[in-house]
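Researcher: Here's a chain I'd like modeled. Treat it as a single chain, no partners, no ligands.
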Amino acid sequence: MDADPLPESFEGFKNSFSYGSRTDMNFKFLKNLSEEDAAQFFKDLLWKLGDASNDGMLNPIIEHIYQWQVNAYCGRLRWEYEDAPITRMSKPLSQARIGLLSTSGHFVEGDDPQPFGVTDMSQKEALMRISEFLKEEPPLSRIPIDTPREKLRVRHGGYDIRAAQLDLNTVFPLDRILELEK
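Model: Modeled as a single isolated chain. Structure tokens:
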């Protein structure tokens, strides 16, 4: 009989949402929280879940998660680069050529970058191989601006791609760029 695995620490649990066994973009922010803050997040979340089971109102849960994401990403871990070269554009945005560089994992159907030489790698395999992805130079995929949305695919070992599949603009703001162009 196999020995029982060691119990997971709370720190390990909260960090597992960021490139771990529970990779999920919705909760990746937990890694940025102290144990005390993460405990408070879950305590409040459980209260809101209890309320929602009584009144059916999900918006307070969504707002709670959103506020903690904002706190985790914009709070104490604010980076400032005083020596960054901030230069005004030399021409109006309407006359500029814009490029979008993203690590979202999107590619055009039929132009799969075939990570590690694997044809049609599944999302499940990408998740299992995240530590390998972090050691390799990522392949670049060109996505023309006029690519039909139904031809876009996404695969990424570092996050839960469900939101990106529902709305690519959550991680690859192609439609927002087209709106700016207009």
